[in-house]
From TrEMBL:
The chain crosses the membrane at residues 19-39, 51-73, 82-101, 107-132. It comes from Kushneria phyllosphaerae. Residues 15-131 form the DUF2231 domain. This is DUF2231 domain-containing protein. Keywords: Membrane, Transmembrane, Transmembrane helix.
Length: 141
């Protein structure tokens, strides 16, 4: 009787891609918390901080998108990769709209900026979850 040893290994993200993806979520989350601080205190500096955090998140999101497109060519599960790319694109577009909202007068930011920050943060969380989940599994015999 022969015993076949099956080894399953999963491919992870490139470390740079992982840092950019995590940075996207963390910066959008920080912008959301900053918007919440502005909503509760009406200190204009919180709105300014949100603008800068959103700008940083958009930079990380753009580079994570490029890494995701390059990783799509080697992905084992292309459907999950396409969903991941689509989430990054939607979060970038809504994040850009949110940046435009935050560029207005500080009093005009609320409540639209806060609502967009919630939506973009949730999208970034889902994209990060999918990005860090194991996308490809290989069975070696």
């Amino acid at each position: 009787m022969n015993a076949a040893a099956e080894t399953t290994y999963r491919r992870g993200l490139n470390p740079l891609h992982g840092v950019l993806l995590a940075g996207t979520f963390v910066l959008f989350l920080a912008a959301l918390l900053s918007d919440y601080a502005y909503l509760t205190s009406y200190q204009i500096q919180w709105s300014n901080l949100s603008s800068w955090l959103i700008a940083g998140a958009l930079v990380c999101n753009g580079f994570a998108f490029l890494c995701g497109v390059l990783g799509l060519f080697r992905a084992g599960n292309r459907r999950r990769g396409l969903v991941y790319i689509a989430l990054l694109v939607v979060s970038f577009v809504l994040g850009f709209i949110n940046a435009l909202i935050h560029a207005m007068d500080a009093w005009a930011v609320m409540p639209t900026g806060f609502i967009l920050s919630i939506i973009v943060t949730v999208l970034a969380l889902v994209a990060t979850w999918i990005g860090f989940s194991n996308t490809g599994a290989k069975v070696k015999q």
